[in-house]
């Protein structure tokens, strides 16, 4: 039976007005999130992954940004249409977000403890004593040693990994139903990165928090996500379960990404097959599929018309002409491609 | 079966795919700056005013039949009107003519001083920044000491020694006011020194001269240009002050400072004699400030889109 | 057996900070690099790998120790030899956005090395620029453009071209792909590999992405807080890591393969990487090492040969 959707992004289109013209950063993007689920939005720079999720909490800078269309439904309520007051009620308590660089997201002039308590006070009535206690609990929850001392320190006295934990503490303070993590570990060392992801997995398990993980790291996603949304040039190229996307990618871009990423588990002699070309500048919206110029399997129609979403498998959708009946020859070529395992 | 004609599914070859590539138009740095600058209304207003004033400085005096120093004791203290657009002063000299001749002097002093301050300041700042260590320390301590004494006092002292006149004023300003520029340049050079492209060049074996000319100077230009507009402002003001206290331009030559000095004396009964030069000098300084601010915003890489 | 092109002997680089503090970025490194190989250097923040690369290139002067290039100690080189060293040994930086002068055209950027070393006439230099652009896969018509008009991957190609113009023999690649998109990283790495074959280059490839290092290197060295803690041939290191830090590092790396990921057992290292400002006696990893014993306080700072051209600095082998 279909579960209630916690968060639904529908037909989101966002543009930015720049000196050189309008940049269509996000084009008709949909995705949704169920309670307790972890989805990963994977994409490279310019894919629109960050812009789409920033819009959820109203963080899109307007101007120069403009939300041209779409709805973001949180338990049925459209966050794009609600009042600023309502949005600030939701942010930080029902839906929280953590970012890539904790140094810029934490206030450098405020003690960490006070920042956590501020978030608590914003969303719940409690005494100063209660919030101090809660802050301690949260520090323990995220595994920061010597919490009493740390609460009295400033962000610059924390290491990168600890700052990210502090951010997580702030994000989890009000037991949100959704946590959006925008490249939370890209700036961290790999041993610290794995600590942070362990933490996120624990939190997700203990509090049944749904997580939207935005990243370009396919390794991290494999261990954590239930479903994956692959974005490119402002559009969703493919969406499916983790197993399906990794083992049976239907979109040439997804397949290309998987082949372009070296893995420790690879045979040392495997050649890295890369995707040639570069991601497009989104000043000129291509008429057809934005990946066509880099795709090994593109056809005439790919240049001229955007494909619809096909469903080659249950629970999967793919934005690609290869799945039209007329493309069977090219499709066969794609299916027969050399896949390193 | 597909609804689309079969020929749509023919694979694209390399050439056809290449046609899809879109690249941004190439935007050179200064034209991008100009484009951003243009959008700032205040800055543009400043530019228009300055251009207008420069034009008037050039042709203004010839628009009236009087020369600026023609004394006419029958037409003293005339209020602004048909015959004398800006009135006359105590010796019957036409103020419009005086204003625009004075403009030439003030603007000349302003620009030339600023330019030489820029040259001196840039050289000193670069040397300080590039060599660092003891050299830097000595130079910066010297600058600190010099800064401790107010500029106007220095200049006044200078003028007491030198004979007042356009050249000596420019000289005095140039020698005393390069400090701000030096500090600015030094700061930028220190920053540039750490950029990877400079490290790459140094690693390649580039000589200090090469680093200065190819790497530092071109990248200093935006900062230096902005600072210059402010230097012009302060030089114009400085000249006005000097002339006011009598150490600046001497009659029969005139300048805005001279006019203001005269105007202050007559302020009680002939307010136009003060107001007119005051308004013009204020507008000029304001315009330069606006241009400077606008230019600073336009060259700030962080504000790039 | 290949010739040794670069030898590092007890190389040290300390930075003197304010208030008498010393940042001991690189401590006592002994390393030989052979001609034509790619030596991968990995480690996390504060390990000193970047500093090491830059010291070798000559951006920093070593505090102690020797750099021996083709048998000649760089400290004893005369001006001519020094110049040759600067030419033969090039560097590519991590950030393609700050490593190219925004005010220089592509031609000026690439020809700079040629100009500094006085190689060739104007015309010859121009030709060399075109050739080099082609080598890195860029069109010669780009010569009049400015760096900021290109994408990250293309800029990195420009940086590579700049290094190649003088036809070096050794290139220090300081995290050359970390700042690039995933799909572009592979392009640049493959380019680097191809160039090695075509031009007979030797690389010191510094990176924190172990999967990429595994792909491109012949031998790999692991650094932790300024010291080399393990060195081995690539296959040997990844199949058989001996140092606890290397083991933990390898186990922390997520693998883009869900089934493997689900089964992956991490060796958790708790705690943070200590600050390079504080130096403790003995092994610097002992504060986080799951196998630390009392002996670790007095560990000798030497890489011990554990067979199979595999060297480890750990009390386990002392």
Order of helices and strands of chain A: EEEHEEHEHHHHHEHEHEEHHHEEH
Overall average pLDDT of chain C: 90
Percent of residues in helices of chain C comes to 25-40%
Briefly note the structural class of the backbone of chain C.
Answer: alpha/beta
Shape of chain A: globular
* N→C terminal distance of chain C: 29 Å
Oligomer: heterotrimer
Q: Give the beta-strand count of chain A.
A: 12
SS element count, helices of chain A: 13
Largest pleated sheet of chain A: 8 strands, mixed
| Uncertain runs of chain A | none
Straight-line N-to-C gap of chain A: 35 Å
Strand order of the largest sheet of chain C: 6-7-8-3-9-10-12-11
Summarize this, please?
By secondary structure, chain B is mainly alpha-helical. Chain B contains twelve helices and no strands. In chain B, helix 3 crosses helix 12 and helix 10 packs parallel to helix 11.
Describe, in plain words, how this protein is organized in 3D.
The complex is a heterotrimer of chains A (341), B (305) and C (318). Chain A is of the alpha/beta class and 341 residues long. Helix content of chain A is 33%, strand content 22%. In chain B, α3 (41-59) crosses α12 and α4 packs parallel to α8. The longest helix of chain B has 37 residues, at 95-131. With 318 residues, chain C is an alpha/beta fold. In chain C, 32% of the residues lie in helices and 22% in strands. Chain C has an eight-stranded mixed sheet with strand order 6-7-8-3-9-10-12-11, with helices on both faces. A four-stranded antiparallel sheet of chain C has the order 2-1-4-5, with helices on one face. The B-C interface holds B 23-24, 26-29, 195-207, 210, 214-215, 218-219 and C 54, 57-59, 83, 86-87, 90-91, 93, 95, 98-104, 108, 112-113, 116-117, 145-146, 148-149, 159, 162, 166.
